[in-house]
Structure formats: structure tokens, C-alpha cells
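User: Can you write out an input/output pair for a complex, sequences first and structure second?

Assistant: Here is one pair. Inputs:
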Amino acid sequence: MSNDLVKLSAKGVNLWFGNKQVLKNISVDFEPNKVTALIGPSGCGKSTLLRAFNRMHDLSPDARIEGKFMLENQDLYEKGLSVTQLRRRIGMVFQKANPFPKSIYENINYGLKINDIPKAERPGIIENALRESYIWEEVKDELEKPATRLSGGQQQRLCIARTVALRPEVILMDEPCSALDPLSTLKIEELIVKLKKDFTIVIVTHNMQQAQRVADKTVFMYLGEIIEEGQTKDMFANPKNELTANYVKGHFG
Amino acid sequence: MKLAARERIDGVARTLFRTTGLIVIAILGGIFFMLVWNSIAFFLKIKPMDFITGTQWDPSGEHYGILPLLVSTCLVTLGAMAIAIPLGIGTAAFLSEYAGKRWKNILKPMIEMLAAVPSVAIGFLGIVVLGPGIAAVTGQPNGLNALNGAILLSVMALPTIITVAEDALQGIPHTYKEASYGVGASKWQTLTRVTIPAAAPGILAAVMLGVGRAIGETMTVLMATGNASAFPKGFFHSVRTITATIAIEMGEVPYQTTHYYALFAIAAVLFLITLLVNLVGEHFVNKFRKYHSA
Ligand SMILES: Nc1ncnc2c1ncn2[C@@H]1O[C@H](COP(=O)(O)OP(=O)(O)O)[C@@H](O)[C@H]1O
Ligand SMILES: [Mg+2]
């Protein structure tokens, strides 16, 4: 079962909200230190799939999940597994930047406190995370400023820093640039490409150019199913499936 | 033709609403004027200093010190808040974060019903249930004291505190909670370190409204606190609040005497306190709104 080329995987996954089936027999592998893009028209279940990996659906009582999710050899839905530990290993960056209504510093410090990281180590980790997320230079003199006063792009990079600070193995990103201007988007894309050295990244995106710029592999979903997956280059150059072809050429979405 | 009719209705409605608005303002102004006018009449006879610092309220002996009444009111209110604030916020947090549909469906109507219980009924419970209970525990002849009043007032302030605090907690964007869960926080950590701090202005508003409710309550404290006019000595002693004093003495006092004016003066003090509490509460509610639109 253990495979060096698989970091994170889903196998035979079905998911319902109430009696509406949103994911249908999904099986997918994500390779370590690669960026994988999840693309597909709105409502096809990309976010739902992404959130299943860090068990965010635990919070919605009407979600029902079948199938197997693995992080290396760890069954993510194993009985008795600590969800909070799991979420530390699988971090998440959300669609809309969601800094806490606290200072810039405290936004990152919060996760460190929660995870019992010794006090003495925290300032260093925070600086490092801000540097890694290419926002240090912009905020180093005003770490006590409320994070909500940052621009949208800065807020999203702060949220990435918050995730990175905990050294997760996998970072899930749900359309992290959808609310940002082109310049901020480019900055975040650069950041994503640099981060894959240390992390396995799965990114949901609506933007075909973005998928081609950042992703090594791409997975195309449609109505809750995976239609096609492969190397990003191949998929955009020679899509095998007609639906994929239409979608990547922008005929619908 | 049709247009003219509609405009006429508009005009009538406008006049009607403006009139009712003016009536409300006039009534308020009238009350305020009456309070101030009679208080001035009082202070022409009694020195303000004697009123504020006097430790004795004994109208028949011409002693008009507000302190014992003020301390009584504060004692009962603080006691009530010491009970109602933790209980209210706890219940609000339970309702908003932990309770399933079934619990909510049971608890919420019960809380609303609690708000609808007349204060005289709660006062009655204080006399026949809580009083003997406190007496039995403390070994006093009766349990009509500040503690009794505080407990009853806490029950009366709870619905307000719970409802407003729950609204505040519910109003916290879901994204904050997701962010917190996302870094591995537990439900409890998320509640205490993210949700409650973010809702703090609304929760403070809830507390202020609760305080306002407790300070102004008359019938319950009148029935449950024993109304001894001696200077209050603590929770296990009988006290006499500003509201109870007014209610007790107003019926018997001859018009336009110093005593009569004195009751207006303490009413004015009560008015100032509740006004202040409401202003502070309002301030936090507004801050809370601003914070949400941001
Ligand atoms: N918590 C939920 N409860 C009920 N239905 C949901 C919930 N979350 C998502 N859905 C539904 O699941 C489907 C897939 O949604 P989503 O995964 O957000 O799509 P995508 O991210 O691809 O746009 C949509 O039809 C959406 O309405
Ligand atoms: Mg989505």
C-alpha cells in the first residue's frame, strides 16, 4: 500500500449532503512535493473533495462520507484518530482570506499556541513563516497592526504564512486567488511554486492559466466525478476526454 | 385621480406617524422635566452633599442620604450579574456552538417563556421558595435579603443576556471558526480564543442590557429583599433598593413635601444610572455592527 509516489489519496469516495450525492466514486492520488490543480465547473464538488481531506465536513451534521482517505499510511477517518493532530499535518488556505480579528503577529502565533510550540521558539517561527510567504518585508514593522487592515492579497499571504508556520505535510488551497487582483495573484502563484519544495500542495482553481502556471498535475472534475487526470501539460495540450477539452478551452465553466 | 388618492394617503400617513413620534418625544420630555423639576425642589431644601454622602435614609427624621439605597441597589445588581453573566454566556455559547436542533427547540422557547413570567410571580417564588431555602441554609429567621433578590434578578436578566449574547456569537463569520479548526484548534479552543473574543462587543452589550434590566426591576426586589432601611451589611442582610423605596413610600407621602421631592431625586439618580448603562451598552452594540460590516 505504501508508495513513495503517493502522499495523499482518496479511494472509492462517495459523499452526500442530505440525500444529494456530491462526490461519486472518487479515486485520486497526490504526489509528494508536487502541485496538483483541481479544476472543473462551479458546483462540481472541488471544494467538497478538498475539505474531505482535512475532515472539515465533520462540522456539518448532514454530510455522509464513504470511502478511504490516506495520508501516507494513515487512514484519515480511522476511529480514535485526533482530528486536531490531523489538521496540523494537512493545512488549509481558504477561498476568502480569513485572518483572525487579531494582530498580524497573533494570527500566526495562535496556531503555534494551539499546537503547544514552546514560547521561545515562536518569534523565530513567525518571522520565518512570514519570510517564506513573501510578506515579511511588508509587515515586519507593524506586526501588532490588526490583520484586517492588510490588503486582500496581503491577508491571503498571511493566511498562507499561518498555515506554513505549522509545517504541515500537505497544504490544501481552495481558490486562494479568486478574490485577488492580478498582481497579488501572481505573487501568490510564485509563492505556491516555491512552497512545493517543502510541501505537497493541492489547489482548487477556476483559472486555466493559473493551473498551467503552477500545477505539475491537473485533475478535472465534472458533476462530482473525476473525468480526467494527468500531467498538466498533456492535459491542456491533448485532453483525452471531450468534456475536458471543452472545459479547458473555456467553452463552459 | 388614482395618483392624487395615493398621495393623499401618503400625506395622511406622514402626518399620523409624525404625530405619534412627537407624542413619544413629548412624553419622554415630560417625564424628564418632571424628574428634574421635582429634584430641584428637593435640592432647595436639602444640601446635595448631604444627599450624596448621607448614610441614613429616614424621611421621618429628615435624613435623606441616598447611600444606603444606592449600595443596596448595587449589591443586588452585582450579585445578580455575578450569577447571570457566567450562566448567560455559558448558555448562549452552548446554544450557538454545541446544541443540536433538538436542544435548541427545547431551550429557546423555555428562555422566551422565562422572559414572559411576570415579576410579581418571580417575587412570589422568592418569598415562598427561595426565602425559606436561604433561611434554612443560613439559620436566619427568614431569607428575605440581598442574596434572594440577586438570585431572582439573575433569573430575570438571563433571557436578555442569553438572547443577545447568542446573537453576537451566531454573528461571528463562519470563516473565523474554519480558520481556527484549520490550524488544529479544538472546539473549545475555538470558542474561547476566537469566537468569544470576536463577539466580545456584542456580549458586553448583552451584559449591559442585563444590568439595565436588573437595576430597574422593582416588584421582585420589593418582595424578596426584606426592605430594611438600615445601611446594608452584605448579601445575607435585608436591603432596600432605590426602586423598592420609591414604590413603598410614594403611596403614603403627602404631596409637595420634602419627602415627596426626595423620591423624585432618587428616581432621577436611578434614571441617570440606567441611562448610563444603556449608553454604554448602545456604544458596544454599535461597535459590534461596525465590526461586522468591516
Ligand atoms: N455544507 C453543504 N451542505 C449542502 N450542500 C452543500 C454543502 N457544501 C456544498 N454543497 C453542495 O455540493 C455541491 C458541490 O459544491 P462545492 O464542492 O462547493 O463545489 P465547487 O467547489 O466545485 O464549486 C454544490 O451543489 C453545493 O451546493
Ligand atoms: Mg468551491
